[in-house]
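Hi there. Long-time user, first ticket. I'm pasting a complex I've been working with (about 380 residues overall). I'd like to know whether the download I got is complete or cut off, because the file seemed smaller than I expected. Thanks.
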Amino acid sequence: MEELLETREIIISSEKLGAFCGVNPAQVRKDLTFFGEFGVRGVGYNIGNLLHHIQKILATDKEWHLCIVGLGNLGHALVENDNMRKRGYNFVAAFDIDPLKIGTKLDCGLTIEPNSRISVLVPKLKIEIGVIATPPLMAQGVSNLLMSAGVRGIYNFVPVQVRTDACCVVENVDFTVKLENLAYHIGKIN
Amino acid sequence: MEELLETREIIISSEKLGAFCGVNPAQVRKDLTFFGEFGVRGVGYNIGNLLHHIQKILATDKEWHLCIVGLGNLGHALVENDNMRKRGYNFVAAFDIDPLKIGTKLDCGLTIEPNSRISVLVPKLKIEIGVIATPPLMAQGVSNLLMSAGVRGIYNFVPVQVRTDACCVVENVDFTVKLENLAYHIGKIN
DNA sequence: GCCTGTGAATCCATTCACAGCT
DNA sequence: AGCTGTGAATGGATTCACAGGC
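Hi, the file is complete. Here it is re-exported in full:
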């Protein structure tokens, strides 16, 4: 989306927007009007303006504070991932229970804290989203810690279903799901 | 799903199956009958039998050969991930261009090979799926290499849209998509 | 009686087509 | 004339409800 700003155009039609991301122009308009009227009839959508509104809607106009729990390879990969940072998702704390890891400084500047500090650091650093990449058995316990510390959402990379209360949203990631898609499609072709 | 095998039950009803994964019982039946008649009227579905059929359908009854390209933190996390291995997705080769990494032995037993060996190792090891976790600029080049080497699917962890020919399926992973979901929901609540 | 398999009914998302604004 | 916003039409997926087999 940001790419569009780099073209010299100021205005874009639902037609072009649709072509750009592979959907029907009517779809684009329906979706957009669900949130408000951002276009001008007979003209189109102001790109900068539209982007601003979308950011508002997706709440990507603000900077989010995240923490990572569990610094195995995956945990590391996530904290160092600057794609997230670029989009406004900033890791401001890192937790683990391994005494060997605690105190270690990460490339991104964070120092690994013990899980026991979750309850104090989450409120202090205004952490809204907890990302978990722990061993499976720890996932539920860590989630509970995060929730009672006041986290509003949990991004779960552990292949385990995590139970939460209503005030906390969960998104699960399971790498094998998309692999199954691939496998299914490949299997169908031959 | 496998978890169900561990319960003492042998037979399960569409009702319970639905409850188990949060869908309507009729949905369960419709979906299953699409592929065949696996249940017994008045009784239910034999769990072991059903699992077998599903594995057949999803082609998870066979062992898949994968390779990883790009061994940063994420690449490491993926190859070492035994959740994939358990489900039949086995990494049988690892590639990188960094001369410092080439020749290194990974915990999983693989030795990192230079990208230049992709074209020979993919056919030799019968690799069907290539997983890419390289820097963004390399992603397209690596994909081309993989495709011409005969890979049937690409699992793309790089935040870049990769073009492929029809004979090759792509699945893209972007960690920020689910973060946007979280952010949107959290934003709506308060 | 119980639970599957399935046509019919319902719901929801996508698309069409046009009225209305610039 | 051009393009948005939107009711109406379409189509696909979900759910209902019951016939058929255990």
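A couple of notes from our side: Residues 67 and 93 of chain B are 5 Å apart (CA to CA). Chain B has a mean pLDDT of 91.
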